Amino acid sequence: MADKSAKSAKNVAGKYYVDTNCISCGQCVDIAGDFFATDKDGGMYVKAQPNSEEGMALCEQALSNCPVEAIGNDV
Prior knowledge:
alpha+beta
């Protein structure tokens, strides 16, 4: 489970976030590239929050496929 107290500073505000335990595997970007991005140092972050059921489904798929559970979805 992602650590809400260890959110990456680059995440946009909202329900979804990436924490500092991320290993930068890139699966979240591959699955939901409209919402996740890689920063210049290789870290992952949420660049946009979903505003549709389809977007939320993609973010949930990215969350469930994260190998280190670094994606969270709480507020």
